[in-house]
Amino acid sequence: MNYSINSEIAKIFNHMAFILEGLNVLFKPRAYAQAAEAILAWNKDVEEIYKSEGLTGLKQIPSIGQNLAEHIEEIIKTGRLKEYEKLKKKLPVDIEGLSAIEGLGPKKMKILYDKLKIKTVADLAKAIATHKIAKLEHFGAQSETNIQRGLKFLKTNTGRIPLGYILPLAREIEQKLSKTPGVKKVIIAGSIRRWQETIGDIDILAISDQPKKIMEAFVSLPEIQTILSHGPTRSSVRLKIGLDADLRAVAPKSFGAALQYFTGDKNHNVKIREIAIKKGLKLNEYGLWRKEKNIACQTEEKIYAALGLDYIEPELRTDSGEIFAAQKHQLPRLIPHGSLKGDLQIQTNWTDGECTIEALARAAMEAGLEYIAITDHTKTLGIAHGLDEKQLAKQGQKIDALNVKFIKEKINFKILKSAEININKDGSLDIADAALKKLDIMSVAIHSAFRLSKNEQTKRIIRAIEHSLVNILFHPTGRLINRREPYELDLEAIIKAAAANRVALELDCFPDRMDLKDTYVRQVIARGVKIAIDTDAHHPEHFKFLELGIGTARRGWAAKNDVINTWPIKKLLKWARK
DNA sequence: GCCGTTTTCGGCCCGACTGTTTTCAGTCG
């Protein structure tokens, strides 16, 4: 899918928000920034929406009203936005470049431009070298030093890092801080607690009566490159890996309120606080208050309840309908962590995996699973030495033998015969039906011809879904986070075909795939289509990624029964036999 | 500029930390 128009418009709106902020305009900046966020999060191309439903369609997007819908219309029609051009003249600077400097926001950028005509990072470096900054009003020697330091450590704009690659480090820091004297509890909050697919920083909450001690421990961690701020209850650091980490400490009695506040996300919290205001209350990280009187603070559950809401799980806190559902008691019962019984995508050393079937099976047992499907690539994927019909049959014999061995060892574990069957360019499969019939479960995927037109790609995949033996479509959109855009395809049409043919769509939870992503999971299960959460394991260590898949499925409002590999093996095989 | 089951007008989250300030504005989350 091509959302470049969405990101282009979001970028313009974000720039406008920034400039308006610099011009001291009230409230509009938030309106523009929220609109930008909403457009980015929307799963449909705004140009398509506009073409089929006009301005009315655009106004269905949250935070888009008459004015912004007309702005979008103008950008689609003319490729530019006059109002943006006008604003740009008032602050014609490299917003992205300069924003990468810690502590430099719209107001200061405006001063730097007005007084010194600083437009770029290079201009800024020059001004620093000649000590012009310190002499400016509202700046000083310290500001100059800080900007100089900021120039050295530009905020990494390589983007966000997949959760799976950050989680081990975050947990290590959590462990270390837990050992500080006087600490009652340390918990990772923020986007990690919400299981967001990528992470921009690590947020940690500490419960302690002696917050200064834990702040001291935090800023002394060996993982740290620089200290950005260091106060008695809050500190902020840049880690050596280029990511920021924040620690917030509160007293035990404020635990629930602080956890709610520090988990976010921001939009969710703003909405929750607005609900508090409407009830004549105030919510902050210390509790829920009516004037000076405390209403709730110990647990998140109590705070949500006091606001008339069912408890909202962290994964759902994205301001995308969860608050309304909590008011109406309509929140889903999310799939619990640890409820997967199997993993249906695993590659072995028969193709591009690193280990034997048995080693992977034993690792899966260790991870608490009851079954796995071996899904080596098939023959047309030359680079992975894909298996042909004969080799598949031979692998089947090996799997049979291992299953017998497990029975003899009295191990309750089963290996299923499967494959990651390659979909040809025309939508046919590269393995003959006779060989496919011998497999326990059949999964398909595309690995080539990524650049087909949207129409052709969609038709190709639907043809594979319609094959009478196919059970699962692997990594349906093909995106690789920070590396490859998804293929152009009409996901709605694919979901429809999957529903009609009772085919499941995969949530491949390898950290940089996470495909389907959260919002797509929500779209898919809303249409009654099942998902399979698989690790795509190539190595025994990879089974630890299962928790990431559950996190993303929960973000997509999935219940246990929406996920086929929570089922006992008998139920799964019955389903697979169509 | 958006939004609404207390509002179609009058609201718009809240607080810590920093640096420049003698009481506060900017930035950040």
Q: How many strand units?
A: 18
Quickly give the structural class. alpha/beta
In DSSP terms (H or I, runs of 4 or more residues), the helix count works out at 24
CA gyration radius, whole angstroms: 26 Å
Strand order of the largest sheet: 2-4-7-6-5
Rounded mean pLDDT is 94
Most strands sheet: 5 strands, mixed
Helical content class: 40-55%
CATH architecture of the largest domain: Alpha-Beta Barrel
Unreliable stretches: none
Q: Give the termini separation.
A: 30 Å
What does this structure look like?
- This protein is of the alpha/beta class and 578 residues long.
- The chain has 4 domains: 4-152, Orthogonal Bundle (DNA polymerase, domain 1); 161-250, Beta Polymerase, domain 2 (2-Layer Sandwich), CATH 3.30.460.10; 262-327, DNA polymerase, thumb domain (Beta Polymerase, domain 3); 342-576, Metal-dependent hydrolases (TIM Barrel).
- The strands form 5 sheets. A 5-stranded mixed beta sheet has the order 2-4-7-6-5, sandwiched between helices. A 5-stranded parallel beta sheet has the order 14-15-16-17-18, covered by helices on one side.
- α1 runs antiparallel to α2 (28-41), α3 (46-58) packs antiparallel against α4 and α20 (454-466) runs parallel beside α21.
- It is globular and about 80 Å long.
- The two termini are 30 Å apart.
- The structure holds one DNA strand of 29 nucleotides.
Name its key features.
Beta Polymerase, domain 3; 5-stranded parallel β-sheet; alpha/beta; DNA-binding; 578 residues; Beta Polymerase, domain 2
